[in-house]
Amino acid sequence: MTDPTKPKNNRRSAIAAIVAGALAVLTPLGVGIASFLTPLFKTKKSPKVRVALLSQVPDDGMPRSFPVVADRQDAWTGYEAQRIGAVYLVRNPGEAEPIAFTAKCPHAGCLVGYTPGDTVFKCPCHTSSFNLDGTRVRGDEEVSPRGMDTLPVELKKLSGDGDIEITEIHVEYIDYQTGHAEKHSTA
Protein backbone atom coordinates (compact mmCIF):
# COMPACT_ATOMS: atom_id res chain seq x y z
CA MET A 1 0.00 0.00 0.00
CA THR A 2 1.11 3.52 -0.72
CA ASP A 3 1.85 6.05 1.91
CA PRO A 4 -0.85 8.76 1.78
CA THR A 5 1.60 11.36 3.10
CA LYS A 6 4.00 10.93 0.12
CA PRO A 7 3.22 13.07 -3.01
CA LYS A 8 2.54 11.27 -6.29
CA ASN A 9 5.01 13.12 -8.59
CA ASN A 10 6.41 10.24 -10.61
CA ARG A 11 4.11 10.83 -13.58
CA ARG A 12 4.54 14.62 -13.49
CA SER A 13 8.31 14.26 -13.20
CA ALA A 14 8.42 11.95 -16.21
CA ILE A 15 6.34 14.35 -18.33
CA ALA A 16 8.49 17.31 -17.27
CA ALA A 17 11.66 15.37 -18.16
CA ILE A 18 10.26 14.47 -21.61
CA VAL A 19 9.27 18.10 -22.32
CA ALA A 20 12.64 19.41 -21.16
CA GLY A 21 14.49 16.81 -23.25
CA ALA A 22 12.39 17.62 -26.34
CA LEU A 23 13.10 21.34 -25.93
CA ALA A 24 16.80 20.63 -25.50
CA VAL A 25 16.86 18.69 -28.78
CA LEU A 26 14.37 20.69 -30.86
CA THR A 27 15.68 24.20 -30.08
CA PRO A 28 19.11 23.80 -31.72
CA LEU A 29 17.56 21.73 -34.50
CA GLY A 30 15.03 24.51 -35.23
CA VAL A 31 17.75 27.18 -35.15
CA GLY A 32 19.89 25.10 -37.51
CA ILE A 33 17.04 24.61 -40.00
CA ALA A 34 16.15 28.32 -39.87
CA SER A 35 19.80 29.29 -40.45
CA PHE A 36 20.04 26.90 -43.38
CA LEU A 37 16.86 28.16 -45.06
CA THR A 38 17.25 31.91 -44.40
CA PRO A 39 19.29 32.68 -47.57
CA LEU A 40 16.53 31.25 -49.72
CA PHE A 41 14.07 33.88 -48.51
CA LYS A 42 16.30 36.96 -48.65
CA THR A 43 15.26 39.57 -51.18
CA LYS A 44 17.91 40.43 -53.72
CA LYS A 45 19.03 44.02 -54.00
CA SER A 46 20.23 45.50 -57.25
CA PRO A 47 23.82 46.56 -56.66
CA LYS A 48 24.96 50.12 -57.36
CA VAL A 49 28.25 49.62 -59.12
CA ARG A 50 30.99 51.98 -60.26
CA VAL A 51 31.38 51.21 -63.96
CA ALA A 52 33.48 54.07 -65.36
CA LEU A 53 34.79 57.58 -64.97
CA LEU A 54 32.86 60.38 -66.65
CA SER A 55 36.01 61.25 -68.61
CA GLN A 56 35.79 57.80 -70.27
CA VAL A 57 32.40 58.68 -71.82
CA PRO A 58 32.75 61.78 -74.02
CA ASP A 59 29.57 63.66 -74.96
CA ASP A 60 29.65 62.54 -78.60
CA GLY A 61 26.54 60.29 -78.56
CA MET A 62 28.57 57.13 -79.22
CA PRO A 63 27.99 54.07 -77.01
CA ARG A 64 30.80 52.65 -74.96
CA SER A 65 30.68 49.21 -73.37
CA PHE A 66 31.73 48.59 -69.76
CA PRO A 67 31.65 45.41 -67.67
CA VAL A 68 29.63 45.39 -64.46
CA VAL A 69 31.68 43.87 -61.66
CA ALA A 70 30.19 43.38 -58.20
CA ASP A 71 30.21 41.06 -55.22
CA ARG A 72 27.64 38.32 -55.69
CA GLN A 73 25.84 36.10 -53.20
CA ASP A 74 24.58 32.68 -54.32
CA ALA A 75 22.38 31.48 -51.44
CA TRP A 76 25.10 30.50 -48.93
CA THR A 77 28.28 31.33 -50.84
CA GLY A 78 29.68 34.81 -51.48
CA TYR A 79 31.83 35.65 -54.51
CA GLU A 80 33.92 38.82 -54.60
CA ALA A 81 34.41 40.96 -57.72
CA GLN A 82 32.46 38.85 -60.23
CA ARG A 83 31.35 40.03 -63.66
CA ILE A 84 27.55 40.12 -63.44
CA GLY A 85 26.80 41.82 -66.75
CA ALA A 86 27.68 44.66 -69.06
CA VAL A 87 26.31 48.12 -69.85
CA TYR A 88 26.50 50.61 -72.67
CA LEU A 89 26.94 54.22 -71.62
CA VAL A 90 25.86 56.91 -74.09
CA ARG A 91 26.43 60.60 -73.38
CA ASN A 92 24.67 62.85 -75.85
CA PRO A 93 26.19 66.21 -76.87
CA GLY A 94 25.80 68.82 -74.13
CA GLU A 95 24.55 66.28 -71.56
CA ALA A 96 26.30 65.99 -68.22
CA GLU A 97 24.90 62.56 -67.32
CA PRO A 98 25.10 59.50 -69.57
CA ILE A 99 22.28 57.08 -70.29
CA ALA A 100 22.96 53.47 -69.27
CA PHE A 101 21.58 50.50 -71.22
CA THR A 102 21.99 46.91 -70.14
CA ALA A 103 23.79 44.91 -72.83
CA LYS A 104 21.34 42.01 -72.33
CA CYS A 105 18.77 41.66 -75.12
CA PRO A 106 15.18 41.84 -73.81
CA HIS A 107 14.18 38.97 -76.10
CA ALA A 108 16.28 36.00 -75.01
CA GLY A 109 19.13 37.47 -72.97
CA CYS A 110 21.86 37.40 -75.64
CA LEU A 111 24.61 40.02 -75.47
CA VAL A 112 23.68 42.97 -77.69
CA GLY A 113 26.60 44.16 -79.79
CA TYR A 114 27.71 47.51 -81.09
CA THR A 115 30.26 48.25 -83.79
CA PRO A 116 31.94 51.68 -83.35
CA GLY A 117 30.63 54.14 -85.92
CA ASP A 118 27.44 52.15 -86.54
CA THR A 119 24.01 53.72 -85.97
CA VAL A 120 22.37 50.72 -84.25
CA PHE A 121 22.91 48.07 -81.59
CA LYS A 122 22.46 44.54 -82.96
CA CYS A 123 21.50 41.30 -81.26
CA PRO A 124 23.26 38.40 -82.98
CA CYS A 125 20.78 35.77 -81.78
CA HIS A 126 17.49 36.77 -83.40
CA THR A 127 18.33 39.83 -85.54
CA SER A 128 16.77 42.47 -83.29
CA SER A 129 18.18 45.96 -83.84
CA PHE A 130 18.01 48.97 -81.54
CA ASN A 131 18.60 52.66 -82.22
CA LEU A 132 21.27 54.43 -80.16
CA ASP A 133 18.49 55.72 -77.86
CA GLY A 134 17.54 52.07 -77.09
CA THR A 135 14.29 51.98 -79.08
CA ARG A 136 13.57 49.12 -81.49
CA VAL A 137 14.50 49.95 -85.09
CA ARG A 138 11.41 48.30 -86.63
CA GLY A 139 9.09 48.88 -83.67
CA ASP A 140 6.66 46.02 -83.01
CA GLU A 141 8.03 44.12 -86.02
CA GLU A 142 11.23 43.39 -84.07
CA VAL A 143 11.64 40.00 -82.43
CA SER A 144 12.50 41.76 -79.16
CA PRO A 145 9.33 42.54 -77.18
CA ARG A 146 10.69 45.93 -75.97
CA GLY A 147 13.55 48.34 -76.43
CA MET A 148 16.85 48.06 -74.58
CA ASP A 149 16.49 48.35 -70.81
CA THR A 150 17.76 51.56 -69.24
CA LEU A 151 19.37 51.56 -65.82
CA PRO A 152 19.49 54.29 -63.14
CA VAL A 153 22.71 56.32 -63.23
CA GLU A 154 24.32 58.33 -60.43
CA LEU A 155 27.34 60.60 -60.76
CA LYS A 156 29.69 60.82 -57.77
CA LYS A 157 32.28 63.58 -57.67
CA LEU A 158 35.55 62.75 -55.96
CA SER A 159 38.11 65.24 -54.79
CA GLY A 160 41.01 65.34 -57.19
CA ASP A 161 44.53 66.70 -57.03
CA GLY A 162 44.67 70.44 -57.66
CA ASP A 163 42.27 71.57 -60.37
CA ILE A 164 41.43 68.05 -61.57
CA GLU A 165 37.93 66.90 -60.68
CA ILE A 166 37.16 63.19 -60.92
CA THR A 167 33.58 62.03 -61.43
CA GLU A 168 32.60 58.37 -61.21
CA ILE A 169 29.60 56.85 -62.99
CA HIS A 170 27.64 54.44 -60.80
CA VAL A 171 24.87 52.30 -62.26
CA GLU A 172 22.16 50.41 -60.38
CA TYR A 173 22.45 47.11 -62.20
CA ILE A 174 18.97 45.62 -62.48
CA ASP A 175 18.63 42.25 -64.16
CA TYR A 176 15.33 42.32 -66.06
CA GLN A 177 13.34 39.27 -67.20
CA THR A 178 13.51 38.53 -70.89
CA GLY A 179 10.63 37.79 -73.24
CA HIS A 180 8.12 40.27 -71.78
CA ALA A 181 6.86 43.55 -73.24
CA GLU A 182 7.09 45.17 -69.77
CA LYS A 183 10.21 45.44 -67.61
CA HIS A 184 10.14 43.03 -64.65
CA SER A 185 13.15 42.67 -62.36
CA THR A 186 14.38 39.11 -61.75
CA ALA A 187 15.05 39.98 -58.09
Automatic annotation (TrEMBL):
InterPro entries to which the protein is assigned, alphabetical: Rieske_2Fe-2S (IPR017941), Rieske_2Fe-2S_sf (IPR036922)
Organism encoding this protein: Adhaeretor mobilis
UniProtKB keywords: 2Fe-2S, Iron, Iron-sulfur, Membrane, Metal-binding, Transmembrane, Transmembrane helix
Annotated TM spans: 14-41
Keyword Transport annotated: no
Lineage: Bacteria, Pseudomonadati, Planctomycetota, Planctomycetia, Pirellulales
This protein's name: Cytochrome b6-f complex iron-sulfur subunit
Keyword Methyltransferase: no
Pfam families recorded: Rieske
Chain ranges of the Rieske domain: 65-156
Gene Ontology molecular function terms on file: 2 iron, 2 sulfur cluster binding; metal ion binding
